[in-house]
Write a structure and sequence with these properties.
3-stranded antiparallel sheet, globular, alpha+beta, 547 residues, disordered C terminus, 18 helices, 47% helix
Length: 547
């Protein structure tokens, strides 16, 4: 093992090893998410080549896939049924890939593994050198989420093996200059559209729903009115700010810290300054680190003190430690908690507590650490119809109003296209139908941030449209829209030439990824893989017909 254990979560953890799940992207996994012909139990082992996979190896691989998510996200994944299905599929696919890699003689040496580890940007200082303190700051996120040092090493090793396998399989992919230009142009043409929106807010005819219809909708969609489980906890916060006055730094500690990190303070000439020249900055950074560590240690001591008590007295221990206990309202696992701004997982972590495990370990991010105590819980439940009747009625009205808005929009668009076919321009046809035209700024299909209504659906629809064409109805959150493609200008050749090398790399990577994913799909079918996913009911349901 070449990784040393360390302390506390720091920012940047989510950026490490961004390619770890390169081949296991959700879009590929979704190819296999449909259940087969019969109901299955969630615990069934997947089948490969007509036989169940090795149970021990499968469980180990699922743990590694979960570890990959922790490495990428800086936290554990949720325990939803969908996530468990995805982990199950990814584990099977990764087992197949590693088996193929071994058969093809693909391996990773210890020097390759160590070089890959040392080259991770998150472990490097501003001078591009490996920084052990950054490593120690990162590792706590793994330990807190059940990822051991050995698992992290194995995650990195498997990533490197699969990257080598991909390079072999996808080596046939090429990006010729002509193919690159052809791929670039349609996505970077400047497009101008005129559009008309049909908003639910503009539908003023009364929508009447009967009590029978409301009750029927409730009966068919009870799950959508479910109140989530909620808990009430109290917590104590330990901050680096509060710990800072107790931290005393010696000259020897400052010298040692500076010596290990001197290149971080180097200027453009890459020559480190003397300690005296940057002493205030060095002192401030080391003080922040020590104060943060002191807050974390204090939180740990607090948690251990409570855990050692037969009947933990949270308020009394808070008094002994000089912190003030805070009690929350009943919160679901996804609720924001007033006063907690630097730890978005607070509510989710609170739901891990119970009467049998009432005290949490220290939780949080740098500068603030929390210890929680369970107080009470309310189970998830579906409220009776009488309790939510007004809410159900309003929801049915919104659905009916939305449907009526779209129906009227479809009729209007049909009339609009008839007028255009008869010789009118888009503007003339809209004027005849008293429709308001909007003309947003020009855009390209490749733009990641557009202010177009309907999100990227106008971008997608415009790809195959000739100039002067009128789209079909496009649904939006507030109703729908129709647009007319007024102008299409060629892509900027100068911009293309400037970025040609980068674009070529991107297209080559895209083509290689597509080729590799096709190869994986063929491998899955050839190996007769049955993921044994349980059939799950969809949350979607058709709205009831209007009376």
């Amino acid at each position: 093992m070449f990784i040393a254990h360390g302390h506390k979560v720091r920012k940047h953890a989510r950026w490490i090893m961004a390619g770890v799940l390169l081949l296991l992207i959700p879009s590929f996994v979704m190819l296999f998410t449909q259940s087969r012909e019969s109901d299955r139990r969630a615990g069934e082992l997947p089948i490969v080549r007509g036989k169940p996979v090795n149970a021990a190896a499968f469980e180990q691989m699922k743990d590694l896939v979960r570890a990959q998510y922790v490495v990428l996200r800086g936290r554990d994944v949720g325990r939803t049924a969908q996530m468990q299905d995805q982990i199950k599929q990814e584990a099977v696919i990764q087992m197949l890939l590693l088996e193929k890699a071994q058969a093809m003689g693909v391996s990773v040496s210890e020097p390759e593994l160590q070089n890959a580890f040392l080259s991770q940007p998150v472990f490097q200082n501003s001078a591009g050198q490996f920084d052990r303190e950054r490593l120690q700051q990162f590792l706590i996120v793994l330990n807190n989420n059940g990822v051991s040092e050995g698992m992290f090493e194995e995650v990195l090793r498997q990533r490197l093996i699969i990257e080598k396998l991909q390079a072999l399989v996808a080596s046939a992919a090429k990006a010729t200059p002509t193919a690159v230009l052809q791929a670039y142009q349609p996505l970077h043409e400047s497009l101008t559209v005129d559009l008309v929106q049909f908003d639910v807010a503009d539908y003023h005819e009364p929508v009447v729903v009967s009590n029978e219809l409301v009750r029927t909708y409730y009966d068919q969609n009870q799950e959508s009115f479910r109140v989530p489980a909620k808990v009430k906890v109290q917590y104590a916060a330990f901050t680096a700010e509060a710990a800072r006055p107790q931290v005393k730094l010696t000259d020897d500690e400052l010298t040692d810290f500076y010596t290990r990190n001197q290149f971080r303070y180097a200027g453009t000439n890459a020559v480190p300054p003397t300690l005296e020249a940057v002493k205030p900055q060095v002192q401030a950074e080391l003080l922040n680190l020590r104060a943060d560590r002191a807050a974390a240690d204090r939180a740990t001591e607090f948690s251990v003190t409570l855990a050692q008590q037969t009947k933990p007295d949270f308020a009394k221990v808070c008094t002994e430690f000089g912190v003030k206990p805070v009690t929350t309202e009943y919160i679901s696992a996804f609720d924001p908690v007033p006063g907690i701004t630097n730890f978005p997982d607070f509510a989710a972590q609170a739901h891990h507590l119970s009467p049998s495990q009432p005290i949490s370990d220290p939780l949080g991010t740098s500068n603030t650490y929390y210890v929680l105590e369970f107080i009470d819980a309310k189970p998830s439940h579906i409220p009776p119809f009488e309790e939510v009747q007004t809410e159900v009625a309003e929801q049915v009205k919104r659905i009916r109003t939305y449907a009526a808005t779209l129906q009227r929009a479809e009729q209007t668009i049909t009339e609009l296209k008839k007028l255009i076919t008869a010789g009118k321009t888009f503007a003339q046809a809209c004027a005849a139908l008293k429709l308001k035209i909007e003309t947003p700024p020009p855009f390209t299909v490749a733009d990641e941030k557009v202010t177009l209504p309907g999100g990227g659906r106008i971008q997608q629809a415009s790809l195959a449209m000739p100039v002067g064409a009128v789209s079909d109805l496009i649904g939006t959150a507030t109703g729908g829209l129709v647009f007319h493609l007024r102008e299409r200008k060629p892509a900027d050749v100068a911009a293309f030439e400037k970025d040609r090398e980068m674009i070529t790399r991107q297209i080559l990577q895209r083509d290689r990824s597509a080729l590799f994913n096709d190869w994986i799909q063929a491998l899955v079918h050839a190996e007769q893989v049955d993921f044994k996913l349980p059939r799950r009911q969809t949350d979607e349901s058709e709205p009831p017909a209007a009376n």
